[in-house]
Amino acid sequence: MPQLRLILGLCLISLLVSCQSSRYPQGRSVYGDRPGPQAFTTVIVDAGHGGRDSGARARGLVEKQLALDVAKRVRSELWPSFKVVMMRDSDYFVELDNRVNIANRYGNSILVSIHFNYGARRRAGPETYYWRSDSYALARRVQQNLSAVAPYESGNAGLVRRRLRLTRNPALPCILVECGYLTNANEAKLVATSSYRERLAEAIAKAIRDQSQYGDAGMGPIPRPIYAPPSKATDARD
């Protein structure tokens, strides 16, 4: 009888593992259960919003324009050391799911989505979002570099793990960067200057180069993967 219980127990464990494996297949890079990227050759730069979607508007600034400006500056910083793919290079809209599909066409690559933030007037400073474990080190490098550039930080979330369509769904390491709050008077004045946007781009590009050279080294413990379904348009942002 004890032997029968043992056999039944092992069968039950095997069944549970099998079900879990079928739901979350092993090796699915979309779940990020692998080390962070290193020696990658392609950087996909996504300028947030565009076209009919202006993104945040505050203090005479428009997010879609600023995001594209910084994205182009990042491209200039990285090329020709990397192949740089621009998700958009002018003022038109690309559906989020299409952005995912475009990103998935490229191997040995990373995705960096560039945005600007909107919130309470006291909030200031950059925020960097990731979901996959293999995106953590890149996100942390970007956040550290942007924080070193930003003279104002108040009430911002910093480095955030959040399941968004551009941090969860692409089958490659992917992060979303909020370069600062357009609603903060002091930060908005800086963002309005081309020299500050150039510094933002340099900070992002340096983080990308460092990630390619060093991988996860020096970034501390990598968080465990969180197995969750792809993000949908109906999901709450938080």
Question: How does this structure look, described?
Answer:
- The protein is of the alpha/beta class and 238 residues long.
- It has a single domain (38-214), classed as 3-Layer(aba) Sandwich (Aminopeptidase), CATH 3.40.630.
- Helix content is 39%, strand content 16%.
- It is built from seven helices and eight strands.
- The chain has helices spanning 2-23, 63-78, 96-103, 136-149, 165-168, 185-191, 194-214, and strands at 42-47, 57-58, 61-62, 83-86, 109-117, 127-130, 158-161, 174-181.
- The strands form two sheets. A six-stranded mixed beta sheet has the order 4-1-5-8-6-7.
- A hairpin with a 2-residue loop joins strand 2 (57-58) and strand 3.
- The longest helix has 22 residues, at 2-23.
- The model is unreliable at 10-29 (pLDDT under 50).
- This is N-acetylmuramoyl-L-alanine amidase.
- Pfam families: Amidase_3 (PF01520).
- Residues 215-238 are annotated as: Disordered.
- It catalyses: Hydrolyzes the link between N-acetylmuramoyl residues and L-amino acid residues in certain cell-wall glycopeptides.
- Residues 1-23 form the signal peptide.
The total of helices stands at: 7
Question: What's the CATH topology name?
Answer: Aminopeptidase
> Which spans have pLDDT < 50 for at least 5 consecutive residues?
10-29
How would you describe the shape?
globular
From the helix content, strand content and strand pairing, which structural class follows? Answer: alpha/beta
Largest sheet: 6 strands, mixed
Task: Just give the CATH class.
Answer: Alpha Beta
Give the total of domains.
1
CATH superfamily placement: Zn-dependent exopeptidases
Number of strands: 8
Helix fraction by DSSP (H/I, runs of at least 4): 25-40%
CATH architecture: 3-Layer(aba) Sandwich
Protein name: N-acetylmuramoyl-L-alanine amidase
EC number: 3.5.1.28
GO molecular function, one term: N-acetylmuramoyl-L-alanine amidase activity
Keywords: Hydrolase, Signal
